[in-house]
Amino acid sequence: MLTITERLLACYSSAIHDVMVAEGLVNFVLPRTIRPLTRFQRVGGPVYTFSGRRDDQASPHDTYLAWTELLGYVPSQHVLVSQPNDDELAFMGELSAEVLQRRGVLGYITDGGCRDVEVIQKSGFPVYCRYYTPTDIIGRWLPEKLGDPIRIGDVYIRTGDYLLADTDGVIVLPAQNIEKLVKKTEVVINSENKVRIAILEGMGAKEAYIKYGKF
Questions:
Q1: What is the pLDDT of residues 95-142, one digit of tens each?
Q2: pTM for this predicted structure
Q3: CB–CB of 34/128 below 8 Å?
Q4: What residues make up the domain containing 124?
Q5: CATH number of the domain residue 41 falls in
Q6: In DSSP terms, which residues pair with 51 in a beta bridge?
Q7: Within its chain, how far is the Cα of 16 from the centroid?
Q8: Together in a domain, 29 and 135
């Protein structure tokens, strides 16, 4: 039997979006400025959150200690999601991505920047961010509030929620609804596949919509 993460990864964000809208949910799509490092990359699974703050008085030693402690604290088989509260620094780099990937973390999403982009792209570790910059956090920023709720754009995210990110964007699914939302999305995708086949076989768009109730 497939796990909920495997079933989620078999879905796509647009289908999940439509299901969540039909369920009356709002504010679950991360800002469109958060984009994948690599085209066509995907990541999905339960979320682990953290936030941080700018501190230009932080010593390099304190920054290294806090950041490396975070890297060792993230549970495997989770997607790490950060709200750094800063728009100048890089909050992921080559070595950090390597550590997370080797520990079994599924991917990383930040409302901030990334560096060492080409190396991370070659590694295959999924990263989504807003911008690229070589400017490091050392001596400038500290992580805090590991596992606490965060907000990115209009979306509140809690550790234990689920997430699916693909080329279209990033969707956050509340933990308490995950089974129902994935199941309904699977039904939608099955209906869309029938519509697709019908159109490929020559059926008109209107006729396909009337027959399957989906387009």
A1: 999 999 999 999 999 999 999 999 999 999 999 999 999 999 999 999
A2: 0.91
A3: yes
A4: 4-175
A5: 3.50.30.40
A6: 83, 144
A7: 14
A8: yes
